[in-house]
Amino acid sequence: MSSLHDTVSTGKCDLRITNWRATKQADGTFTLKNSTDGWCLDSRKNGTVYTHSCNGGKNQKWREIKDSMGWRLVNKATGKTIGVNSHGVYARFDGSIKHQCWS
């Protein structure tokens, strides 16, 4: 069995499958773990966002940045911010745009 899940996508909220638990790490970052399957949110340098077995690596650590538009999630390893568009979830350079803000 592979330890890599498919890329992360968006859809209608269903708390049975879309519930994520944020856990603060000693370095001030957070890991985001899916409550259903126990996998962590991960990202690659190319901007792919996916779930992977939790391993504590920098690609699974996210800084939360709060501003007037909401929360932005910045990957510790890549420095890229999670966003969403018509193609799904991605991680790119921070544009402080509404597509990169979460509540």
Note the topology.
Blueprint: E1 4-7, E2 20-24, E3 30-34, E4 39-43, E5 49-53, E6 62-67, E7 70-75, E8 81-85, E9 88-92
Antiparallel strand pairs: 1-5, 2-3, 4-5, 6-7, 8-9
Question: What this model shows, in words?
Answer:
It is built from no helices and 9 strands. The protein has 103 residues and is mostly beta strands. It has a single domain, classed as Trefoil (Acidic Fibroblast Growth Factor, subunit A) (Trefoil), CATH 2.80.10.50. The strands form 4 sheets. It has a 3-stranded antiparallel sheet with strand order 1-5-4, with no helix packed on it. A hairpin with a 5-residue loop joins strand 4 and strand 5. The radius of gyration is 13 Å and the shape is globular. The protein starts with a strand and ends in an 11-residue tail after the last strand. The mean pLDDT is 79.
Short recap of the structure:
The protein is an all-beta fold and 103 residues long. It has strands at residues 4-7, 20-24, 30-34, 39-43, 49-53, 62-67, 70-75, 81-85, 88-92. It has one domain (4-100): Trefoil (Acidic Fibroblast Growth Factor, subunit A) (Trefoil), CATH 2.80.10.
Number of domains: 1
* Global morphology: globular
Helix and strand succession?
A: EEEEEEEEE
CATH architecture designation: Trefoil
**Cross-sheet strand order for the largest sheet:** 1-5-4
Q: What fraction, in percent, of the residue positions are helical?
A: under 10%
Uncertain stretches of 5 or more adjacent residues = none
- What would CATH call the class? Mainly Beta
Biggest sheet character: 3 strands, antiparallel
Multimerization state: single chain
- Taken as a percent bin, the fraction of beta residues is 35-45%
Q: What's the N-to-C terminus distance?
A: 34 Å
Mean pLDDT: 79
- Number of strand elements: 9
